[in-house]
Write a structure and sequence with these properties.
This protein has helices at 25-35, 41-54, 92-97, 123-134, 147-181; strands at 56-59, 63-68, 74-79, 83-89, 101-106, 115-118. By secondary structure, the protein is of the alpha+beta class.
Length: 182
């Protein structure tokens, strides 16, 4: 592995923004899962192969996006603020292959996860990154961002939102007072 500047041990630092595709071993996992279906192998493998070929991830400052599909395209975009919980799962075969699935839950009312990120080797690091983002941690020195400026931007946005809510409250009070006079 190429050493990344700033790492003393010579290992590469995990940057979730570089995550765009699942690990190639996910296709091998899909093949093993399909083989377990016996004579139904082609009917199980072909949709999984199409999903693997088209699966794309995009991790941005505001949220995470996933898309896949050939005939029926599915695109999901979640902002970090909407994320409620993250479940990391690994079955026996996934552990053997070094893979994991991150199931991301929102408050949508559905029992199913809103997004499942499959075929990730650095699942623990990605989970920790997403937890930090969903909890509002702004200074991520591992990604080279300036903590003070990001917290300042967050405070400014909160102040603007609070001011807007106060203006709405005052306008509603004026409407109620005008109704009482009539």
């Amino acid at each position: 592995m190429d050493p990344t500047p700033g790492n003393r041990d010579g290992t590469r630092r995990f940057d979730p923004r570089n995550l765009e595709r699942p690990d190639p071993s996910l296709l091998k996992y899909y093949g093993l899962v399909s083989l377990m279906s016996g004579p139904m192998f082609p009917f199980v493998f072909i949709p999984l192969y199409c999903k693997f070929v088209t699966l794309r991830y995009r991790i941005e400052d505001e949220g995470i996006a996933m898309s896949y599909g050939v005939l029926f395209r599915r695109e999901v975009y979640l902002t970090y603020q909407r994320i409620q919980d993250i479940h990391l799962t690994r079955n026996f075969v996934q552990r053997w292959m070094g893979l994991a699935t991150l199931a991301i839950q929102t408050a949508s009312g559905s029992a199913m996860p809103e997004m499942s990120i499959e075929g990730i080797q650095e699942a623990d690091q990605l989970r920790d990154f997403l937890y930090a983002k969903m909890r509002g941690v702004r200074g991520d020195s591992a990604l080279g961002e300036d903590a003070a400026s990001r917290v300042g931007v967050q405070v400014d946005a909160e102040q603007r939102a609070l001011q807007l809510l106060a203006e709405i409250r005052d306008a509603l009070r004026q409407c109620a007072a005008a109704k009482e006079q009539n």
